Amino acid sequence: MSILDSLRPAVGLRVLVTAGGSGIGATVARAFAESGARVHVCDIDQAALRRLASEAPSMTSSVADASVPGDVDRVFDDVRTTLGGLDVLVNNAGIAGPTGPIENLDVEGWERTVSVNLNSQYYFARRAVPLLKKSQLNPCVLAMSSVAGRLGYALRTPYAATKWAIVGLMKSLAIELGPQGVRVNAILPGTVEGERMSGVIGARAAAAGISAEAMREEYLRKISLRRMVTAEDVAAMALFLCSPAARNVTGQAISVDGNMEYL
């Protein structure tokens, strides 16, 4: 196999993307489908899944709340029907969580963030691993963390805590599953252009008592390249990590962030 060929994911790769109806998840799902993979997505937003189906009718989908074990079980019932197995799990589900000083955060907001961002990683991994162990196509798990999974993040403690935990889970699973040939890596996106980031910037600006424009400039000053990344940048990394070119890459927390210097 040439180096160029090794950079292309295998045609027919069976991929599950959680929270794949919109945002980074949808971009990753479309990238895999365009590369020739068979893709199943799940999302809590049924309308988003309908929009995705209109854009990419080859994909199959399930409506599910990634933080609910019963919903996750139903997703895997659908995966067995639509894909007949699994080669790649993209554990992408996550929410921004509340913004504010720790003493002002309510318990419900904290627990919801942990449930969606961290517990969902466990729920999907425990069901995916038996299928991945049977795969003959370079099986792997991609855990979506964040630059907040390597840096402290004042006023966003629930989010940062879960994203650090995802890296710990990934590194432990890489050791656990390596002997079975299953690779596990984490992608740590930085500041990603889009509606979600605009909302985060707005909330953080409000908490700091400054304008959203000033907060955006503050974010850019923290990035060595002085630009935000795109969902396509993250999808490109996901494709690489699931390609034969990355067959010896496991247990890694890989940032796609333009080198975020601090948060």
From TrEMBL:
Transmembrane parts of this sequence: none
Keyword Glycoprotein appears in the UniProt entry: no
UniProt cross-references to Pfam families, sorted A to Z: adh_short_C2
Gene3D superfamilies: NAD(P)-binding Rossmann-like Domain
CDD domains tied to this protein: SDR_c
InterPro entries: NAD(P)-bd_dom_sf, Sc_DH/Rdtase_CS, SDR_fam
Domain of life: Bacteria
Keyword terms, alphabetized: Oxidoreductase
SUPFAM superfamilies listed in its UniProt record: NAD(P)-binding Rossmann-fold domains
Family the entry assigns: Belongs to the short-chain dehydrogenases/reductases (SDR) family.
Protein name: SDR family oxidoreductase
